[in-house]
Design brief:
Blueprint: H1 3-20, E1 33-34, H2 43-49, H3 51-58, E2 66-68, E3 81-85, E4 88-95, E5 98-104, E6 110-114, E7 117-119, E8 124-131, E9 135-138, E10 141-144, E11 149-152, H4 174-177, H5 179-182, E12 190-191, E13 196-197, E14 200-201, H6 208-212, H7 216-226, H8 244-252, E15 258-260, H9 271-274, E16 275-277, H10 298-301, H11 305-309, H12 313-316, H13 330-333, H14 356-359, H15 370-374, E17 377-380, E18 384-387, H16 396-402, H17 408-411, H18 417-428, H19 437-445, H20 451-459, H21 466-479, H22 494-504, H23 509-519, H24 525-535, H25 548-564, H26 569-581, H27 585-598, H28 603-614, H29 619-630, H30 637-649, H31 653-666, H32 671-689
Parallel strand pairs: 1-14
Antiparallel strand pairs: 2-7, 3-4, 4-5, 5-6, 7-8, 8-9, 8-10, 10-11, 12-13, 15-16, 17-18
Helix pairs in contact: 1-28, 1-30, 1-32, 16-18, 19-20, 20-21, 21-22, 22-24, 23-24, 24-25, 25-26, 26-27, 27-28, 28-29, 28-30, 29-30, 30-31, 31-32
Length: 690
C-alpha cells in the first residue's frame, strides 16, 4: 500500500467520523431577583377572590415547589449536623435566621455557602446555594422528609469537584435545569458570551398564572365590576386548559422530557410551538416504553389507552391540589366499573375490576391495588417513587423474551418471569398475543436481521400510539435504509410530523427537496424548524421562490431555539453545525469551543473542533484539543481513533499505530478502527521489509 493512498483513506474516514458524530468567588454573588411581567399580578390578587381554589392550592406541591429559605420552609436539620458518605461531605448550620452549608466548592476547597431557597417539599427537599455569575446550584445532599435524615443523591459515590455533575457543575445548575418549572413567569436571562445569568421570575413557585397565563386584565376587570361596573370579568388567557389532549400538552410543558424551542414559554400556546418532546429513546425508556430514565409522565401517558380515549390529567388529579380525586382503587373504578360511562368513553367494558376475580390477590394486600399492576413505581432521586403513566397491562412474557421489567416481579422478585406468565394463564387462560411494539424496538436495538423492515411497518400502523410510531420512525432514520413514509408528513399528530421532518433531514438531497419544502409552512414551529434544518445545506437555490422566505424564517427559529438553550453544550454543537453549513468556520469554532468549555467531557465537541482545526492546517491545536479530552472521557476510544487519524494525516505512522491500538482496545467491535489499524500496521510491516 502506498503512503498517499493510505493518507487519503484515513482522511476520508476522519471526515466521515466527524460528520456523523454528533471556586472561590472572585466576584460578588449575584442574587436572582423576582420581577413582575406587565400582564401579571401578584398571586395574592388571584387567591383573594378564588378562595376555594386557593385553599386547595395551598396544600399542593406546586405551592411549595420552591420557597425562600425561612424557618417555615426549611425542613432539614441545620443544627450543626455533619453529613459524610461516598466522598461527599457537608456541614449544615445556622447563623441567626440564616441557613448555611459548608462543603467543597468547585476547586475542591472547603467553603461556606448561604442557603437562599428550598427546592421541593416531599419526599425530599434540596437546598439552593448561590455561585458567581447569577447561578443557583442544587446541592446533591438532600433531606429525606420521611426518614428525617440527610442523604446523597449519588449513593454509589459523588462526583469530584470540577465535574459537570458535581453540585457546583453545569448539570446541577438551577437556572438551566430546574427554574422554568418551579417558578412562574420565569426568565432565564442567560448571557451566552459571558456564560452568566440575570434570572428573574414573577412568583417563586408554580402559581395561578403559571397555568392560566397573565391575570392582570382579569384582575382589573374584576375590580371594576366590584366597583359597580357592568359585564363579566375578562377571562385569563388559558382559562380552562382546553380539550383533554390540549390539557395533557399544557401539563407536558413541565411534566415531559423535552427540548425548549423559545426563550420564554407561555401557558395556553401549542406545545410544539414551544417545546419538542423526546420520543421513546433507548437511553430514556425500556424497549416496551416503560419508564427508565427520569422522563416524568408525558411520554408514558401518550402510549396509554386513556390518552387515546380522551382522559385528561384532571380526570384523575384534582386541578388545584394535584392530588388524586379518590383514594385507592376508587380512583380507577370511577370509570372502570360494572356501570361505566359509555357516553363519554364508549370503549369501556362493564366489569367488577375491584375484585379478586380480576386481580387474584387478597383484598387490601399488595397486588390488589390497580396501580400495583398497571402503574408500577420507579424511584428517582433515590427516594422519589413515580408511577409509570402508560397504565399498561403487565406483560411478564415480554420480560422472558426481551428482558424488560414487569409489575409482577416488583412483588415476586424471587420468582422468574416464566412463573408470572404461568400464574396469569392459570387465572385468565392462555391467550394469543399480537407482537408488541417493544419486541420490534428491541429487535432493532439488538441489530436483529430484518428489524428495519418491521420498524417500517410499525411507522405506518395507525393502531399504534403516535409516540410509538414516531419512535419507530426516528429509529428507522438511524438505520438509513428506508425512505420516510410520506403519510407521516401529513399525519395529524404534530410529534410524528416533526419526527418525520427530522428523519428526512438524513436522506438524500432529492428526497429532501421532494418533501421538506411543504413542511416549511406547517402550523407548528417544531415541524418548521426540523424541515428548515434538513434543508440548510441545500440552501435556497433548489427551492421555489415562494418557499425561500419560509426557509429563512425556519432557520431563524432554529437559531433562536439554540440561543434559548445556549447554556446547554448540545445547543452550541447545533450552532456550530449550522455555521459549517453556512461556510462560517469562525462562528463554528467559537461554538465548538464554548461547547467544550461548558462540558469538557463532551467528545462530540472535541471531535468537531479538532476536525475544523485539522482541516485548516492547525494540526497542533487539533491534537491539543483531543489529548485534553482524554482526562475527562469515560471511554476515550473515539478520541484515540481521532488522534490516530490525525497522526496518519501528518504521516506519523508509529504514532498512528499506537493511537489506533489504544482505540481498538477500547472499541473492540468498531470496524472503522480495525480497518484503519490493519492498514497502518500493514504499511509499517511493508516499510520494515524494504
Amino acid at each position: 500500500m502506498s503512503v498517499p493512498a493510505l493518507v487519503i483513506g484515513l482522511l476520508l474516514l476522519w471526515q466521515s467520523l466527524l460528520a456523523v458524530g454528533p471556586a472561590a468567588a472572585t466576584e460578588a454573588d449575584a442574587s436572582p431577583r423576582a420581577a413582575s411581567l406587565p400582564d401579571h399580578v401578584a398571586d395574592g390578587e388571584c387567591l383573594a377572590c378564588h378562595v376555594e381554589q386557593a385553599r386547595l392550592w395551598e396544600t399542593s406541591k406546586h405551592r411549595r415547589a420552591m420557597q425562600p429559605a425561612t424557618a417555615d420552609s426549611v425542613l432539614g436539620d441545620f443544627g450543626g449536623v455533619h453529613f459524610s458518605s461516598g466522598g461527599e461531605s457537608a456541614h449544615f448550620f445556622r447563623r441567626g435566621e440564616r441557613y448555611f452549608v459548608a462543603t467543597q466548592d468547585r476547586s475542591g476547597a472547603l467553603a461556606e455557602f448561604p442557603v437562599t431557597h428550598t427546592f421541593g417539599v416531599h419526599p425530599l427537599q434540596q437546598v439552593l446555594l448561590p455561585l458567581p455569575g447569577g447561578r443557583l446550584q442544587a446541592l446533591s445532599v438532600a433531606w429525606d422528609t420521611r426518614r428525617g435524615q440527610w442523604f446523597s443523591l449519588y449513593p454509589e459515590g459523588g462526583f469530584e469537584p470540577g465535574s459537570t455533575l458535581h453540585w457546583t457543575g453545569r448539570y446541577q445548575n438551577w437556572n438551566l435545569m430546574c427554574g422554568e418549572c418551579h417558578t412562574t413567569a420565569y426568565r432565564k436571562g442567560y448571557d451566552d458570551a459571558a456564560d452568566r445569568y440575570a434570572t428573574t421570575w414573577a412568583e417563586h413557585n408554580v402559581g395561578c398564572q403559571a397555568c392560566h397565563g397573565g391575570g392582570r386584565a382579569h384582575a382589573e376587570s374584576a375590580r371594576s365590576l366590584a366597583q359597580g361596573g357592568e359585564g363579566r370579568p375578562t377571562p385569563t388567557p388559558n382559562r380552562r386548559l382546553g380539550t383533554a389532549h390540549q390539557q395533557v400538552d399544557q401539563c407536558a410543558a413541565c411534566h415531559a422530557r423535552r427540548t425548549r424551542l423559545v426563550e420564554e414559554a407561555a401557558p395556553g400556546l401549542e406545545l410544539l410551538d414551544q417545546f419538542m418532546p423526546d420520543n421513546l429513546r433507548a437511553e430514556l425508556y425500556h424497549a416496551d416504553g416503560q419508564q427508565l430514565d427520569e422522563v416524568f409522565e408525558y411520554g408514558s401517558y401518550r402510549q396509554s389507552r386513556m390518552y387515546a380515549a380522551g382522559v385528561a390529567c384532571t380526570d384523575c388529579h384534582e386541578v388545584h391540589s394535584g392530588r388524586p380525586r379518590a383514594e385507592g382503587n376508587a380512583l380507577c373504578t370511577a370509570c372502570h366499573s360494572p356501570s361505566p360511562d359509555r357516553e363519554r368513553f364508549p370503549g369501556l367494558k362493564a366489569a367488577d375490576y375491584d375484585s379478586d376475580a380480576h386481580h387474584f390477590h387478597s383484598p387490601g394486600k399488595r397486588g390488589s391495588q390497580c396501580v400495583d399492576c398497571h402503574m408500577p413505581s420507579r424511584n428517582y432521586m433515590v427516594v422519589h417513587g413515580r408511577r409509570d403513566h402508560a397504565i399498561r397491562v403487565p406483560r411478564p412474557d415480554l420480560t422472558a423474551r426481551i428482558g424488560v421489567p414487569n409489575a409482577c416481579q416488583d412483588c415476586h422478585g424471587e420468582r422468574p418471569a416464566e412463573w408470572a406468565v404461568a400464574a396469569i394463564e392459570r387465572h385468565l387462560g392462555a391467550r394469543p398475543r399480537e407482537e408488541h411494539y417493544g419486541e420490534v424496538l428491541a429487535a432493532f436495538r439488538a441489530g436483529a436481521p430484518g428489524a428495519a423492515n418491521r420498524l417500517a411497518a410499525l411507522v405506518t400502523d395507525r393502531a399504534q400510539p403516535a409516540i410509538v410510531r414516531a419512535t419507530a420512525l426516528e429509529s428507522l432514520a438511524q438505520a438509513g435504509t428506508h425512505p420516510v413514509p410520506t403519510a407521516s408528513l401529513q399525519d395529524p399528530d404534530g410529534v410524528l410530523r416533526a419526527t418525520a421532518a427530522a428523519a428526512l433531514g438524513t436522506r438524500p438531497v432529492e428526497e429532501r427537496l421532494a418533501h421538506l419544502p411543504a413542511l416549511l409552512s406547517d402550523p407548528l414551529r417544531a415541524v418548521r424548524i426540523a424541515a428548515a434544518r434538513g434543508l440548510a445545506d441545500v440552501g435556497e437555490v433548489g427551492l421555489d421562490p415562494a418557499r425561500r422566505p419560509l426557509l429563512r424564517a425556519g432557520l431563524d427559529d432554529f437559531v433562536a431555539a439554540q440561543v434559548a438553550m445556549a447554556d446547554m453544550p448540545g445547543a452550541q454543537l447545533n450552532l456550530a453545525s449550522l455555521a459549517l453549513v453556512r461556510r462560517d468556520p469562525a462562528s463554528a469554532e467559537r461554538h465548538y469551543r464554548r461547547a467544550v468549555q461548558r462540558d469538557p467531557a463532551l467528545q462530540a465537541g472535541r471531535l468537531g473542533l479538532a476536525t475544523l482545526l485539522a482541516g485548516t492546517q492547525r494540526e497542533d491545536e487539533a491534537e491539543e484539543v483531543l489529548r485534553a479530552g482524554l482526562a475527562h472521557a469515560d471511554n476515550a476510544g473515539e478520541l484515540h481513533f481521532a488522534l490516530g487519524l490525525l497522526a496518519g494525516q501528518r504521516q506519523r505512522w508509529e504514532e498512528a499505530a499506537r493511537e489506533l491500538r489504544a482505540a481498538a482496545a477500547l472499541l473492540p467491535h468498531n470496524a472503522r478502527v480495525r480497518r484503519n489499524l490493519d492498514a497502518v500496521e500493514a504499511y509499517l510491516a511493508q516499510r520494515q521489509r524494504r
